[in-house]
Amino acid sequence: MLRRRSEFLAIRRDGESESGSHLKLNWRPAGTSARRMAIVVPKTCGNAVVRNRIKRWVREAWRALQSDLPAGLDSVWVARPKAGQAGLEKIREEIRFLYLRAPAEDECPFLAVSFGLGRSLLSLSSHLFGLCDPIHPNPWGVARFDPLP
Hints:
The protein is an alpha+beta fold. It is 35% helix and 15% strand.
């Protein structure tokens, strides 16, 4: 579990985010194979009963999907106001969907495969020669620079 303010700030500052209709995922590669997470439920989601229910749903969905989720991610889940009406199944589907959009560090050489052979070879060579930043798994940097226009 992520507990320190500095960990939350590092994920927010150095990481990336993906949004769904009920949850927002802030994430960054952890550099280890461990999966750590935290849940943030603002008061706009409802009273304490609703907020605690959302936290239980997210924890349960995250535990149930652990074997299917990529390893090596620190993730912060932020609930949106509509999360209280979602239910466990919708939360589980959204967690799976958002995790699929957030690749882990060990997937770095395979990120560019969908962009063609040239880009995938550049990505693989940059990973093999240690040019791939472990915090930002995109081999072309944070700004998503593409070396082949």
